[in-house]
Every structure is written in C-alpha cells, then in structure tokens.
C-alpha cells in the first residue's frame, strides 16, 4: 500500500508515474491509500512518501480525525510488524505542531527501509536502504505541445516559496538588466506568501524584461513556458532532490543550480553542458554566463537513461522484498512464547 490515494489532476506526476510503473511490475499489487484499508485491510508493505500529507486537513475537526486515524495506523503497523518503506524526498526533519511531529517521528521509527533518490542522501545506521533514482518526465510530457527555445530567455517555473531563492534571482536579474537589456526572464507559478508575490509583481512593474505570471500553472502551461526558454534557473538556497531540475532536463532545457555534491553528480550523469552552477549566492554574472552558454541552442539531449520508470518499478519491488524479508527474519529470531 502506498501513502497516496487514487491520482487527481493536481497529483504530483512522480506519484502517478510510480503507480503506473508498479502496476507494470510482475508480482506487485499496487493498493492506493485509504484510511479504512490502511487500518483494517491486508497488505505486505506500507510505503510512505510525504508523511505530512496524511495529516493535511482543511478544518480542525478533519485534522483531529486524521491524527486519531494516524495513531491507530501506527499501532496497527507496530503490532502486525508490517514493514514500512519510506522514500526520502527531502532530508529535513518533520515540521508542524507538536502532535504532528510526534506522529511523524513515530512513523520514522517504524521505518524498515529508506529509498534514497540521490547518492548524497545520508544513510541512517540500523535502517536498510535502497538507491532508486528519481525517474524522468519524458514520457509524461510527450503528449504536450512544446515551443521552440527563445535565445536569451531565462525562466523560473514552479511553486514560489521563500526557501527557493526567487528574491535573490530578482536582485541578480535587475543588476544584469542594467547592462544586458536583451536578456529576458519569466517567473511563473503560484507564490506561497503574499509578501513574496508583491515583491515579484513590483519587480515586474519596474523591469520591462521581467515577466511574472503568479498563477497555479497547468502541466501544459508549465511545458509551454519551460520549452520556450533557452535555460531554466533554479535559484534554490539548498538543493537535494529536485523534480523541477529533472522536469527541465526532460524537456531538453539546461539548468542553473547551486553548486553542491548532488548537482555535480547530476551534471556528470546527464552531461556537463546541461547543468550550470552558481556559488553561495546567485549573481548577475552567473545569469549572464548561462545566457551566453545557451544562446546558440543545444544539440542532442541530456542522458536520462539511468532514470527509466520500468527499472524504477523493478527496483521498488526489490526494495519491498528486502524490507519484507528483513521483518520476517526478525520475527523468526524472536523467542517462542510457548517455549517450544
């Protein structure tokens, strides 16, 4: 059983593609999440992605109900010794109120095996792990219309949150615009904070070369904006696993990312011409170098052969078998209560 239900139009494509890959994988029966089945149903392994989404609610009453259901689920998993597999989508500790953090921490303690999406994801002593790279989006984007790359057009596309460094992108681009007025920037996606949205809107009013579209984007709109750019800027202060980076590379657009071990490994994997770096802080110089390096267009495609979904489905099946085998071996090692 996965920790996500039947996909909706707004479901993360990673989840949908994983579900489809598992359904194509022999010997795996995929169960979408429901509280009734999670607590009372039969399944061999419970696979968690973003644990906090199990507690997300629009009202106090619903949140209280989900907290109670989570406590019952944790008890069921512990009492039945059901293996818990967790995909490490980010490496930050659980966040939220005290009750939520307590529940999510308890879920972490029940984890039998962690799926790491990057070689740089730290391993945890005493917990099994499997490395399964985040799959690409090429098949997902294949039916959608794409634009030709526009020289000197950079883009940031996706949800806009404070930790993603968009404010520094605006500062660097304003400095760049004073000398390189031909370079344009599109910032598109819903802003999580009204003050951040206001900052972007004011910058767009001030800078003719900056275009801002602060709506929630459909996938078709995302593809259209990314493919129309010559390169995608991801000005994150920290980057570990980035679906946005893989989405841009899946659309054959080079990316500008923070320089760290994870992004260096990504460059070595897909081709160094597709991954450009900035240092501790994004600067106008880094944007100018990116625009100059990509102005003539790109030849070939990034190498995403290590991120095929059928291979990911098979690797998940192996991880489930490993977790199940580990729990069964622990059970067999327990002393017999009858003394026989």
Descriptors for this entry?
alpha/beta, four-stranded parallel beta sheet, six-stranded parallel beta sheet, 12 helices, elongated, 13% strand, 42% helix
Could you describe the 3D structure shown?
With 340 residues, the chain is an alpha/beta fold. It contains 12 helices and 10 strands. The protein has helices spanning 13-23, 35-40, 60-80, 98-109, 138-141, 166-177, 194-206, 219-228, 243-250, 261-270, 284-294, 309-333, and strands spanning 46-48, 84-88, 111-116, 128-131, 153-157, 184-188, 210-213, 231-233, 255-258, 275-278. The strands form 2 sheets. The protein has a 6-stranded parallel beta sheet, with helices on both faces. Strands 1-2-3-4 form a 4-stranded parallel beta sheet. It is elongated and about 80 Å long.
């Amino acid at each position: 059983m996965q920790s996500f239900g039947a996909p909706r139009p707004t479901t993360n494509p990673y989840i949908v593609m994983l579900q489809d890959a598992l359904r194509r994988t022999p010997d795996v029966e995929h169960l979408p999440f429901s509280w009734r089945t999670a607590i009372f149903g039969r399944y061999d392994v419970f696979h968690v992605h973003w644990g906090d989404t199990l507690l997300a609610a629009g009202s106090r009453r619903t949140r209280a109900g989900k907290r109670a259901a989570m406590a019952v689920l944790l008890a069921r998993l512990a009492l039945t010794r059901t293996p818990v597999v967790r995909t490490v989508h980010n490496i930050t500790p659980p966040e939220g109120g005290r009750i939520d953090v307590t529940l999510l921490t308890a879920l972490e303690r029940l984890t039998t095996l962690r799926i790491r999406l990057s070689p740089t994801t730290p391993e945890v002593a005493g917990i099994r792990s499997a490395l399964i790279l985040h799959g690409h989006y090429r098949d997902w984007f294949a039916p959608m219309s794409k634009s030709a790359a526009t020289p000197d057009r950079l883009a940031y596309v996706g949800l806009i949150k404070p930790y993603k460094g968009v404010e520094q992108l605006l500062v660097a681009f304003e400095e760049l615009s004073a000398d390189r007025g031909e370079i344009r920037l599109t910032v598109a996606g819903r802003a999580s904070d009204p003050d951040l949205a206001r900052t972007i809107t004011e910058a767009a009013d001030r800078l003719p070369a900056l275009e801002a579209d602060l709506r929630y984007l459909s996938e078709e709109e995302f593809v259209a904006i990314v493919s129309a750019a010559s390169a995608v800027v991801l000005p994150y202060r920290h980057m570990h696993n980035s679906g946005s980076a893989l989405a841009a590379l899946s659309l054959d657009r080079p990316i500008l990312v923070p320089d760290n071990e994870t992004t260096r490994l990504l460059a070595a994997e897909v081709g160094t011409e597709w991954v450009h770096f900035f240092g501790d802080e994004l600067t106008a110089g880094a944007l100018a170098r990116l625009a100059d390096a990509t102005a003539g267009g790109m030849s070939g495609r990034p190498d995403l052969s290590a991120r095929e979904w059928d291979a990911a489905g098979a690797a998940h099946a192996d991880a489930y078998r490993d977790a199940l085998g580990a729990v069964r071996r622990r059970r067999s090692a327990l002393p017999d209560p009858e003394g026989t």
